Amino acid sequence: MLGIFSGLERVLRIERFTTKSELMRARTVYLMGFALIATQIINMAAMYHSYGAFTFDHNLSVIVCWLVTLSIVTLRYSRRFQVYAVIYSVLIIGATLSSALNQNTGINSALIPFLILGVVVNGFICGWRATLTFGVAGVALIWVLWTVSTSYDYTPLFDVKEFEARNFQRAVQASLAIILITMVTGIFSKNMHEAFGELEAGILAAQTSDRAKTNFLSTMSHELCTPMNGIIGMNDILEETDLDDDQKELTGIIRESGRDLQTIIGNVLLFSQLDADRVRLDDTPFNIRYAVTAATSRYASAMQQKGLTFEKRIAETVPFELIGDKIRTVQIIEALLDNAVKFTEAGGIRLAIHGSADAHGQVALLITVTDTGIGIAEADHGRIFERFTQEDGSIKRRFGGTGLGLTVARGLAELMGGTVTVKSEPGKGSTFTARLAYTVAAAEAYPLPAAAE
Question: I want to staple 308 with a disulfide (CB 3.0 to 4.6 A). Which of 36, 99, 303, 450 is the partner?
Fold first, then answer.
């Protein structure tokens, strides 16, 4: 059933209604329309069973179905919900009049739910003013029917005297029911539409604020990169001079701290670019083995300081030369390695790359980083890819970081048509797998770098 409604919404282009308020109104219009059509079909079947033939009433029902269908189809092009409210109101009132006047039954209690339905539908589609308008019209209709019924000479269903004695009380009861429903629906629809308005305004404000923060992060990251590069560059020059052991230790600390800060700034800048949809991919030939060496080299000293073993394996089936974005590939590998080094205190880290070219020259590359770190609870597998998120607050205090590395890795992978997944258990380490698609470049003989052998 949900699949049918989803298909109808695609046909009616319901996705054009971007706000929650418009989406609710549009769904009310088409669901109410299909409900009216369904009732008319059932009514026509019942009339044929009763009359034994097609009558003028059948023609009226067919006309109603066509009008409702036309109003639903109009959803593809128009957002004037007042039009739909008027159409449905006219159809409901017209059906009530035709049923009551045709049989000389006056205030037929069976018709009151249709008037109440009109009150509710108007509230959903257009708000409390439309509810009040239809409620007044409904009460007026009741007394029009009562007035007409007082001039009946006879009715085939009731004795005239008994009919007149009860008809006034029915009119009063029907009026009270419509007034009560109008008041309740009016209050409800007013609060509902106001709540939707406040919600949409809040969402818009949050989106605006989010864009402003993203722009701020991007600007600040750019501004911080220049002095940071200067500090690292000057420190590199300083390390080449004659230094004693204490000075070498201090410059080493500056170097490692500067590179850590450079990584953080890079992640923030890249995240802000991804969030603002400003990252562009570059499809050029590159050697995947050299790219892996470039990505792993910067973490060698950190793993050595922690006493971690490191294993790197690139399958022989992986082509040497691929067409894709080398820089983004390196950034994804670096993000996964950075996460592994950060959360692994003992044991080791393994980087494995698998993939082979198909008959069309396409390669589905699997980049897997496995560590023996603290692990991740299954409930947190999805959350760790959210921005500024780590498993819990104590993790951030203990290991540091912004929580952007995995977010950036998955964002880049998805931009490249792939994804990043995780398998992990607390205390048993983690395995992150990036699935990326490339094209094989023109075959050339590239020697394996020593670090990748």
Answer: 303
- The one-letter amino acid at 46: A
Backbone phi, psi, residue 432, to 5°: -105, 135
Residues with pLDDT less than 70, the chain = 1-3, 5, 99-111, 151-165, 214, 217-218, 221-222, 276, 387-403, 442-453
- Domain-terminating residue out of 206, 241, 273: 206
In a domain? residue 425? yes
H helix intervals, 52-159? 56-73, 81-102, 112-126, 128-149
For 118-150, the pLDDT digits (tens) are 888 888 888 888 899 988 988 888 888 778 777
Q: What is the DSSP letter of 320?
A: S
Q: Which of 409, 431, 416 is nearest to 364 (CA)?
A: 416
pLDDT tens for 394-408 read: 454 454 455 678 888
d(CA 305, CA 319): 33
Buried b (16+ CB within 10 A) or exposed e, 160-197: eeebeeebeebbeebbebbeebbeebbeebbebbeebe
Residue finishing a domain among 166, 188, 206: 206
198/295 same-domain check: no
